[in-house]
Design brief:
About 30% of the residues lie in helices and about 30% in strands. By secondary structure, the protein is of the alpha/beta class. The protein has two domains: about 100 residues, Elongation Factor Tu (Ef-tu), domain 3, CATH 2.40.30.10; about 160 residues, Rossmann fold, CATH 3.40.50.80. Strands 1-8-4-5-6-3-2-7 form an eight-stranded antiparallel β-sheet, sandwiched between helices. The protein has a seven-stranded mixed β-sheet with strand order 12-11-10-9-13-14-17, sandwiched between helices. A two-stranded antiparallel ribbon has the order 15-16. The chain is globular.
C-alpha cells in the first residue's frame, strides 16, 4: 500500500463545523474538550492524533486522541494553552464549533501482549499515554504506569491511569505528591528492584523521553518514544515533522509518531522545537493587543 493510499484509508477530512459538546478545565492552562466527530471516532486507534484549525486564520494544531466513542460519535482532546492557536482553541465554549478537523492521523501503536509493560509519561504527555496504557492492558499486559508533573496540581488523568494500570506510581518535581524527582528516577528504581520490563513506552517532554531511554538502554529493554516535533500538514508532504531515527530521516506524522527511543536523535528534536519561540511570542502579543483595543489592524 502506498503512502497516499494509506492516508486515504486513515484520514477523514470535513470542512463542516465540529461542535464542542463538553469542556473542562484541568489546570490553569490545560483544558479538555469533547468534540462531535463520528467519522474519526469510528476509525481511531491508540497512538493516533488529529490536526485541527480553529478558524480561517488559525494554524494547524496536532493533538493526540485521548478517548473516542463510536456509539456517541465523540472524541476527547486535551491541550495546553501555550501559543496563539491553543489559546484560541481554549476560548471556545460548549456549542461552539471547530472549523476544520482531520484524522485519525499517524501510525497506530503496535499493541500486543508483551508481558510486563511500563508506561512512563509526564505533563500533557499523560493524555497521549492513557489510550496506550488502556490498549496494553486490554491486550493482556501487566501495566506499570509512572506518571509525572511539576507539581500535584498539574497531574492529569490520575484516576483514569489507575484504572488501566496494575501499578501506578506518581512523581512530582517539587515532591507535592508521590516521589520527589523525575519519572525516570522511579523507572530506574523499579528496574533496580528486579522489575523485568518487556517494553517501555516514554511519552512526554523530549528531555524526559531522552532520559528514560538512557535508563533502559544498558538493560536492552525495548523502549518506544512518542515524538512531538513541529508539524504542519500531518500527511507526509511538508516535511516539517522530520526526525532522525537510526541515522535516517523519518516523518513523525506518517512513519510515527512512535519510534525506537534508543535510535532517536533527541538532541536534534530538541533543537528543532526551539526554532520559533520568538515568532510565536510576537504572534501572541499582536493578538492580545488587538483584543485589548490597542490595535485592530489585520496582517495580510
Amino acid at each position: 500500500m502506498s503512502r497516499y493510499e494509506l492516508i486515504s484509508q486513515l484520514v477523514t477530512q470535513q470542512t463542516s463545523p465540529y461542535q464542542i459538546l463538553a469542556k473542562q478545565q484541568l489546570s490553569p492552562q490545560i483544558k479538555k474538550i469533547q468534540v462531535h466527530a463520528p467519522e474519526i471516532a469510528n476509525k481511531a486507534k491508540a497512538g493516533q492524533f488529529v490536526i485541527l484549525r480553529v478558524d480561517q486564520e488559525g494554524e494547524r494544531i496536532p493533538l493526540t486522541l485521548v478517548t473516542w466513542n463510536n456509539k456517541t460519535g465523540t472524541i476527547t482532546l486535551i491541550f495546553q494553552e501555550v501559543g496563539l492557536s491553543t489559546k484560541k482553541l481554549g476560548s471556545l465554549q460548549v456549542q461552539d464549533a471547530i472549523m476544520n478537523l482531520a484524522g485519525p492521523l499517524g501510525t497506530p501503536s503496535h499493541i500486543k501482549n508483551y508481558g510486563l509493560a511500563a508506561v512512563v509519561c509526564g505533563g500533557v504527555g499523560i493524555a497521549a499515554a492513557y489510550p496506550i496504557a488502556k490498549a496494553l492492558k486490554e491486550a493482556g499486559n501487566t501495566v506499570v504506569s509512572i506518571v509525572g508533573a511539576r507539581s500535584e496540581g498539574l497531574l492529569l488523568l490520575e484516576e483514569e491511569m489507575k484504572q488501566v494500570s496494575d501499578e501506578l506510581y506518581i512523581s512530582t518535581d517539587d515532591g507535592s505528591k508521590g516521589h520527589k524527582g523525575f519519572v525516570s528516577d522511579v523507572l530506574r528504581c523499579l528496574i533496580g528492584r528486579n522489575y523485568q520490563f518487556d517494553i517501555v513506552y516514554a511519552i512526554g517532554p523530549p528531555l524526559m523521553m531522552r532520559t528514560t531511554s538512557e535508563v533502559t538502554r544498558p538493560y536492552g529493554i525495548k523502549t518506544i518514544a512518542s515524538l512531538n516535533p513541529i508539524m504542519v500538514d500531518g500527511m507526509g508532504m511538508c516535511g516539517a515533522c522530520r526526525v532522525s531515527v537510526g541515522g535516517k530521516t523519518k516523518f513523525a506524522c506518517i512513519d510515527g509518531p512512535e519510534f525506537d527511543a534508543h535510535s532517536t536523535d533527541f538532541n536534534e528534536l530538541i533543537r528543532r522545537l526551539k526554532i520559533y519561540p520568538s515568532e510565536e511570542r510576537l504572534s501572541l502579543d499582536f493578538h492580545e493587543k488587538a483584543q485589548g483595543g490597542i490595535c485592530r489592524c489585520r496582517q495580510h
